[in-house]
Structure formats: C-alpha cells, structure tokens
Amino acid sequence: MSSSDDLVISRKEFKSSDNSSEVTINIAVPHMRLMYRSKKENMKRISELVKQSKEENNIHIFLIPSGFTGGPFLEHRRVSINMIKKISERIPGQLTSELKDIARENNVYLITGGFYEKAGPRIFISSVVISPFQEDIIYRYRKMNLGEDELSIISAGKEPCVIEISGLRIGILLEEDLFVPDIARALALNRSDLLIIFSKLSNRFSEIIKYLAIARAVENNIPVINIGGLLNIAGDEIINVKTFIVKSNGSIEGESDEDEEIFYMTVRLKDPARRGVKKIPGMEVSRNVIKYIRRNKLL
C-alpha cells in the first residue's frame, strides 16, 4: 500500500471501493474480554463474535487475541512447566479443529494470537491461520522473541512469517516480537501490506504498546493493527491493553475504550498485477548495516 488512504476504519460499517482494479478485504478487529483459565468460555465468545461480524459486516478475516485459550499464565501466576504442558495444544489438534469449524460455519479466515503449542518435548507460543476452504492449517508462526519469564520454559521460533490471503500480505508479530525492530523490518521487506501485533495482556504492554506500534508503522511506512483486550480473573477486570489501528503516517485510528467492541477495517488492494514495489524508509541503510554486521562478524 502506498498511502494511508488505502485504509478505511469504522466502528459501524464498511466502506467499499467501486474501482474494479482494486480488491477490497474486510477485517474484524475485536477488543474482547478473555476469561482467565476458561478456554471453553473464550471459544464460545469468539464463535459468537465471528458470527455477529459476518452477519453485520460480511467480513473476510477475523483476528483472535493472544491468550484466548486461557490467558497469559506466566505473566500473572507462578506456574510449573508441567502445568504449561498440560494446557498446551498440539497442531493440528482439538483447538485447531474447533477453529476450523468456526471458520467453515461463517466462511471467514481466522488469524489467532499466541497460544501454547506442544511439539514433542518443546513448547512454543504460536499463531495459526485457518482457512474456511482448506482442511490443513495454511500458516503457523512461532514467536521468536521470548519474554524474560518465558526463557526457561518456552522455545523460540526461528523465522518471521508473512501470510497471504486473497492477495493481502500480512506480517505477524506475537507479543515481545514487537520489541525487536528487525522482525518488523524483515516483514516489511518481504512485501507485507499490513502488520498485525498480537499484544500480551500485561501491565507492561498496556503502558508502552502505543509508542512501539507507532514507531513500527512509521519506520516501515506500513499500517499496523494492535490487538489487545481485557483480561478478567475471578470476576475482576485486571488488564486492559488497548486495541487500535495505526496508519503508516503514525496517526491512531479506532482506539478501544474500557469495554468490548469490534472495529471493522477495509483494506483496498490494487490489482496484484499492477502493484509496484513498496517503498520502505531506510532500505539502503538496512543493507549497509547488514554488511557491517557480517564484515565485523558481530553475530
């Protein structure tokens, strides 16, 4: 996308393009309440919101916040490795089967935030993309930059992930991935049209997320969606990490308040055959920095 005019954000309705050379993709950006250690209740709420969004706004993509299987356990409770293993999900497995059912029933793509994935003896924090048209999971991304409380329990992913849905290229950032500018830059260099940050529901994120999201948008000339949410533990709302959208010029659009709501975002894409190379600030600088690192064997 070449400018912030390629985005339309609304709390109420979509605005479509009449230009036949453009593809319009509608995305539901929910600011939803997650119940701590209540996967069943959270999945029920996700199903309700996907159905509502499809009926009211004919969405193509629905975004699911991090911690939707029960909350960011390591941030708010002391837990053992055995407990984490117990609540971890296999891919494919029961969780992805439930997500596939929701996707098919509503004819909607689902992009999830982070959840614990069990892969042999290792545990990752992973995101998956579910298509309503395919049996297999079409993308899986494993969080690369782990938080301090995760280092002794969680394994890190090895490479960034750009997904493509109907020509729209989306770069995924899970939680502390945002703290490493190189990950966002790699996603932008790999022709992402949009970055999605799935924030951790923690006090640290609620305090600094907006500044970092604006920085990633401006330094890469790319729109950014931040998916936050509300975390409820034992009936008390203890965390509210804002959900918002940042245009490529750094302006904030559609910021959440103190309760659940859904933003609806329309992305307009030029015909892929007519789209040019995206201009990213500092590309030549990035090349020179990489050469410097290699030449001096800094990594």
What does this protein structure show overall?
With 299 residues, the protein is an alpha/beta fold. It has a single domain (4-295), classed as Carbon-nitrogen hydrolase (Nitrilase/N-carbamoyl-D-aminoacid amidohydrolase, 4-Layer Sandwich). The chain is 28% helix and 30% strand. It has helices at residues 39-57, 73-76, 81-87, 94-106, 181-189, 203-220, 283-295, and strands spanning 7-10, 22-31, 33-35, 61-64, 109-112, 115-119, 122-130, 139-142, 162-165, 168-174, 194-198, 224-227, 229-233, 236-241, 244-246, 252-253, 261-270. Helix 1 packs parallel to helix 4 (94-106). The model is unreliable at 1-5 and 9-20 (pLDDT under 50).
* Unreliably modeled segments: 1-5, 9-20
Order of helices and strands: EEEHEHHHEEEEEEHEHEEEEEEH
Our measurement of the CA-to-CA distance between the termini, rounded to an integer number of angstroms, reads: 33 Å
Q: CATH H level: which superfamily?
A: Carbon-nitrogen hydrolase
CATH architecture descriptor name:
4-Layer Sandwich
Determine the CATH topology.
Answer: Nitrilase/N-carbamoyl-D-aminoacid amidohydrolase
Q: In the CATH hierarchy, what is the class?
A: Alpha Beta
Q: Name the beta content range.
A: 25-35%
Mean pLDDT: 87
- Sheet having the most strands: 8 strands, mixed
Domains (count): 1
Helix content: 25-40%
The helix count comes to: 7
Class from secondary-structure proportions: alpha/beta
Features of the shown structure:
299 residues, alpha/beta, Nitrilase/N-carbamoyl-D-aminoacid amidohydrolase, 8-stranded mixed sheet, 6-stranded mixed sheet, 7 helices, 28% helix, disordered N terminus
